[in-house]
Every structure is written in C-alpha cells, then in structure tokens.
Amino acid sequence: MSASTATKILRERIVLIFDFDDTLGPNTTRAYLEYLGLSFEDFKSRLRERKKRKWQAPLAKADLYREYSHREGSPLNRESMQAFGREFPLFPGVDEMVDHLNDFVRELDDNITLEFVLLTAGFKTIPAHSVIGQQFDRVYGGELHFDDKGRVLSARRVISHVDKVHYIKQLVQGLDLDRASELENTYVEHDPDQYYVPMAQVIYVGDGNSDMSAFQVVEGGGGVAVAIDKDGEGEWENYDQMSRARRVHNIAPADYHPDSELMNTLCLALRMMVNRIKLLRFGQDD
C-alpha cells in the first residue's frame, strides 16, 4: 500500500506532556514563599480577595508578586526564583524518569523517539530552572515580566487550565506555540498529513480536576491520560460521577521510581504506542 492510501499517518515519535504543580513536585507558589520565609497563608488570603474583585487567577498572582517584589529589601525576584528552581523538591524518582523512559523505548525500537513537554498553568520561571525542566525538550507556561533589577512588573503571558487544551492541539498539529497563543488555530481544519504527532501518540500526566479538559481532549483523540494522586488516597472525590470522556486510564501515587505503579502505567502506555507505530509501518512504502 502506498503512503498516500494509508489510513493513518506515521510519525515515529511519542510526546509525553506533564503538568508541574502537584504532578512532578509540590505546589510551586507555596514552596517558593516558604523558601523565602514568607507566609503562604497571607499570600493566599490576598489572592482570594483579588479573585472576589473578579481578577483572573494568574493575573491576580502576578500582581501580588509585583507587590511583594517591590517591598523594601524583598527577596522575591527573578534571581531567587531561578535559584529556587534549581533546588526545587521534586517527587521521588522524577529526576531519573526521562532517562528511564528513553531507555525503555529504545529497547523496544531505537527508531522511535520520545519528546518530553512541560505544560503548566503557573509561571514557568521556577519549573524551567528545575532539574526536570532542564531535562525536558520544551517548557510552556505563564511568563512574568521583570525590570532590570529582577523585580516583577507584570504577567507577560498567562495560560489557563482551559488554554492547555489549545496548546495540546497546537502541538499535535505542528503549529507555533512560542508566539502568543492564537486559540482560533485549533478550530480550523488542518491537513492531518502535516500533523506533528497523532493524538493517539500523546500521553498527558496531570494532577486532578484542573486538568480535566486536557484529559478529555487527549483521551478523546486516542491518547492516554494519567492522573497523579499526590495524597495517596487512590481516587478523587466524585470521580464516579464524572463523564467517561473526562476519565483517565489510571490514577497513580506520585512515585516515579522504576518499579512504581505510575512508571509501570507509563511504560504500558508507551509499549502500546510503540506497537501502534510498528503496525502503521506496514502501511507505508518500503
């Protein structure tokens, strides 16, 4: 069969997309403020007041960062964010995950590549400087604008949890994610033959209700969504009442060691996708 008559496109890559907060490590804002010796509860209270005044959450957080950053002698600045990122306390085994999964797929088929993408609705300064952020191929998230002294001035880019859906679709379609997100791109027809990767070769890992829309778009396209149970309870509240489209393949504890339930889940998903690619090769020209 010629490539033009094959019913599925062949892309010899698999993309793994990870949320950051409560997925690869603890809540970034709480951990950072505690690192600086500042009260997270006070920050959260101020954030709640802004939300009552109809502020969008990412903009409210950026404005609070600006306020804190401009206090006399404030430690909250770009330099301390980057420094904290470098020592960010990741969940167990995260720092070895990329190597382990690359080795696993290489043993199955050394012509298939993995791509690791970080997609956070938070600000990316800290995640991008973390050990795992440095290992990932791409990092997308909100961005802060700093002055020449490293103080926060404003948000330069925000990504909501709903926006994540459009980023995932744009990544799959091979569109440019480095410019400001143009959400209409995901609603127009694009030639599937030009897609960067089929959704069926995408794995999304997130932590809960805020990732439901992302779970749905990945699962709906034939990919695999995996949820992190950071508290080790084994389930989410009201999970049984969720629509099947929003459910995930598995909910696993936040343990990334090689023999953990989470890593076994990811390896099973990767094996399935590797076999899919091998099958699709039969539909291509020699």
UniProtKB/TrEMBL annotation:
Domain of life assignment: Bacteria
Record-linked InterPro entries: HAD-like_sf, HAD_sf
SUPFAM superfamilies, A to Z: HAD-like
Protein name from the UniProt record: Haloacid dehalogenase-like hydrolase
Species assigned in the record: Neolewinella marina
Lineage: Bacteria, Pseudomonadati, Bacteroidota, Saprospiria, Saprospirales
